[in-house]
Amino acid sequence: MTLPAAAPGERVLAACRAMDQAGGPLPLEDLASLTGWSTRQLGRRFAEVLGTTPRAYGEALRTQRLRPALREGRAGGGTVLDAAFAAGYGSVRAFYEQGAARLGMTPSQYAAGGSGERLLWSAGPVDVGGVEVRRVLVVASLAGVVAVRIGDDDDALLAEVAAELPLADLDHEPEVLTDVVAAVAALARGAGDAPEGAAALPLDVRGTAFQAAVWAALRRIPAGQTRSYAEVAAELGRPTAVRAVARACATNPAALVTPCHRVVRSDGGLGGFRWGLEVKRALLAAEQQR
After folding, report:
1. CB–CB of 42/28 below 8 Å?
2. Catalytic one among 260, 279, 283, 286?
């Protein structure tokens, strides 16, 4: 079955659903046959719609299954390899090569609660939208930015980030992250897509496949512009998933770098914002002025 007459977003969605049902990646040839594209067209369209590749999307799905399998295995006395095969990895080699890379640590370390993963953090003052000075905390792995938090107390912000992986090693490395914190601070001032802004910051965010698709869509919204939750849902080929898009925005782990503040209600209202509507209003105003 192919979908030659469908819009690009619908074809990409069909490929995603096929991988959702399979629980992981599928051969490019199979996805190309389903969508009616060549494998090259498939890769290009995936990048345009979701900001990723079909393979990466499928691997994210498999990792999504791996995380709870490892946690459940730890609680029920199962082995790491039991979790690997339950998540759909066909070989031990693929599991350790691909699973470890996507977990950000070895599977055994993740099953133990993140023991041994090294995360770096630093914090500094930010002039949010040119209105008020607050604190911004950045947490990064060796692969990219894991989290960005806005608030008034560094310890409280760090505790939020540490909750998911309580056994990870959180090292204060202000010198290593100087440029990263500066780039995030520039975004807070409304610098938008400046060369030292969001485009220069690699991300290592951890979420479901749908959340990743939403966050990728947010990064495509130009500075100074907004989209409604409904428009983001429609762009993803899921027009009825407005509430799910709103939840993904609310759980965005990397504030400013992934600009969830650029999403508003269809009636023009600001909607919600984890760090306060006054901050959201200030960010939008600063970006529009620039």
Report:
1. yes
2. 260
